Amino acid sequence: MKPSLCGIDRAGLRDILQKCGVAEHQLNMRSQQIWAWIYHHGARSFDAMLNVNKDLRSALAEHCTLDRLDVSLDQKSEDGTRKWLFRLSDGHEIETVYIPEVDRGTLCISSQVGCTLTCRFCHTGTQRLVRNLTHHEIVAQLVSARDALDDWADSPRNRPTRRITNIVMMGMGEPLYNTDHVFPALNIMSDGAGLSLSRRRITLSTSGVVPEIPRCGDETGVMLAISLHAVTDDIRNELVPLNRKYPIDELLEACRAYPGLSNAKRITFEYVMLDGVNDSDADARALVRLLAGIPAKINLIPFNPWPEAPYRCASWDRIEAFADIVNRAGYASPVRTPRGRDIMAACGQLKSASVKQKASERFAELQAKKLQRPIA
Predict the structure, then answer these.
(1) What pLDDT, on the 0 to 100 scale, is given for residue 368?
(2) Does the structural domain 10-63 have CATH classification 1.10.150?
(3) Whether 24 is catalytic
């Protein structure tokens, strides 16, 4: 199969151009041209690249494609939220969610097929990890979403900004267990000559892979969100089992040292509100004490139910009382409005149908398909 340039990084693009016969002294110029066509204009064919000579366009078409991710399912919620189930080249599937708001449009992107963690409140955590996504597949989620939303530089639109203004790495998977691909993907997304998203509008959410947190700040410069959800190790061990390896004190120490941390670049702490588990006034006061000295915003998330979930959402009265304590301590603590619940697109609800297969099982499937092909 020909590789797609959708999701390629600059080094990979230069390699392709060399294979297409581009001379060394022209590589920079041609790379810039084609990079802009892929990531600024959203070109779907090489013939659309009008300032690229015909011979090079033909050579590119011979060696590669501009194919996007295949869409298995495209769902729209009553509240405007949109969820795509994207099918990858190996047949596995991932979910990506677009959340439109008055002043922004946020795309929630996945980093793995399934998840290596087993957070008890999260539906994705009930799906075993199948594999990491490549940086091609991570970036291709943004490219494919822009296609679907007609959100490219050349798209006719009567609006001052693009539809997708923010990226959150909060979809399926733990991003800091796939740094070899997540970090390059975020740098492609923030490249000013292409997709051109501000690093301050890209947020990576982690359950607390402590050793990788400094690297995230150094190598990407994006905003950081911590999936906290509890104020004691005992409760967090239950909700976020990774806490047994990296307990709260170690996690917060890494947060305090996050590169570039300031009042202008605060860490977001995500806190899912679970009835009778972590929603008391005492929990709120303990949370304030824990975060003392960290420039932070506390994002309170009403629990989004899923089939056979072991928890219930805290009542609105309890959530408001919790938020009031945190607000009075000087922390912004917005309550996240549940979006896309009717299509299972809300926070913690994402799960694809992909399952992990042994290599022998996959080989057997391929052999069976070959036997079923009609003989010419």
Answers:
(1) 52
(2) yes
(3) no
